[in-house]
Design brief:
This protein is mostly helical and 242 residues long. It has a domain at 16-30 and 37-108 and 146-178: Up-down Bundle (Methane Monooxygenase Hydroxylase, Chain G, domain 1), CATH 1.20.58. Helices cover 66% and strands 0% of the residues. It has helices spanning 16-21, 23-26, 41-70, 74-98, 103-110, 122-144, 149-154, 160-190, 203-209, 216-234. The protein is flat. The protein starts with 15 loop residues before the first helix and ends in an 8-residue tail after the last helix. Bound molecules: protoporphyrin IX containing FE. Protoporphyrin IX containing FE is lined by residues 47-48, 51, 91, 95, 98, 106, 117-119, 121, 124, 180, 183, 186-187, 190-191, 197-201, 203, 206, 209.
């Protein structure tokens, strides 16, 4: 019988676990402790790298979901957007870990960042790329079925698949908003809300960017539904004595 402890996969690494996951390479991607400007730099780097890795996985699932929407496979699309949304919880919550770095210590790390800025985050840029494309695919399906956003919400039982996708997109939009909200608070706590970032962008811009939504129409339809409900309540009912 084969020795189950011996690796059988190709590549470097003492075990198949290490070979499959390329842990040697992955765990060598951080600065060496002797090169750290501050001991908190390990946490700073690991949180950023882990976020980038998760955002890569999220973009992958969202792009798969987009193709399912194009094919009219709404259950599969919703399943994958849900998965992406669950993954997105971690880049959001990991930001709180960085709140434990004190402002003075952070400036020691910051001195070694050059012009490095989250504005160039490949992971977050991929969110800004895929978000609108998902919306376009969703709206193409609405046009194909000759439906408005309001129709999908009003007749949600009949168009359950499209309604499910719409709600998953709304969840995605909300999480991007939450990422930006927690990131703004992080920046305000560590470097302050009235300063300029490493790439020359005032922290205040992060505040303005929070206003950005991918799917405004999915938020706005709630206003229309409430307005219609209010209108219906004000109308005197037939057969009613008062
Ligand atoms: C100590 C922690 C952090 C501080 C003080 C900080 C600060 C900043 C500042 C000042 C900006 C404005 C642009 C500029 O750099 O000039 C920015 C942008 C950004 N940062 Fe961070 N950041 C931190 C951690 C993170 C982490 C963990 C991520 C996760 C990937 C991240 C992602 C981003 C993104 C995506 C933007 C662009 C924001 C947008 O488009 O709304 N940052 N950050």
């Amino acid at each position: 019988m084969d020795d189950l402890k011996k690796p059988i996969l190709p590549g470097k690494g003492a075990s198949d676990y290490e070979r499959y996951l390329h842990t040697d390479e992955l765990l060598a991607l951080q600065k060496l402790p002797e090169d750290f400007l501050h001991k908190d730099e390990m946490t700073f780097q690991v949180v950023h790298q882990a976020s980038e890795l998760l955002l890569k996985g999220i973009a992958w699932e969202l792009d798969r979901a987009r193709l399912h929407i194009d094919e009219g496979e709404f259950s599969n699309a919703a399943r994958l957007i849900r998965r992406a949304n669950q993954m997105l919880e971690y880049p959001i919550s990991m930001q709180h870990v960085l709140e434990t770095i004190t402002p003075y210590d952070y400036h020691i790390i910051r001195a070694g960042l050059g012009h490095g800025s989250g504005l160039d985050s490949p992971g977050f840029l991929s969110m800004l790329h895929i978000g609108p494309r998902l919306g376009e695919s969703f709206h193409a399906q609405l046009r194909k079925a000759n439906l408005s956003v309001d129709d999908v919400y009003r007749r949600h039982d009949e168009f359950f698949g499209l309604h499910d996708v719409a709600e998953c997109l709304l969840d995605f939009d909300e999480r991007i908003h939450l990422f930006r909200f927690h990131h703004l608070k992080l920046a305000q706590r560590i470097i302050g809300g009235g300063v300029i970032g490493t790439m020359g962008t005032p922290v205040e811009v992060l505040h303005q960017r929070m206003e950005h939504l991918f799917y405004k129409e999915l938020w706005d339809v709630r206003n229309q539904i409430t307005a219609k409900a209010n209108e219906a309540m004000l109308k005197p009912k037939a057969g009613c004595a008062y």
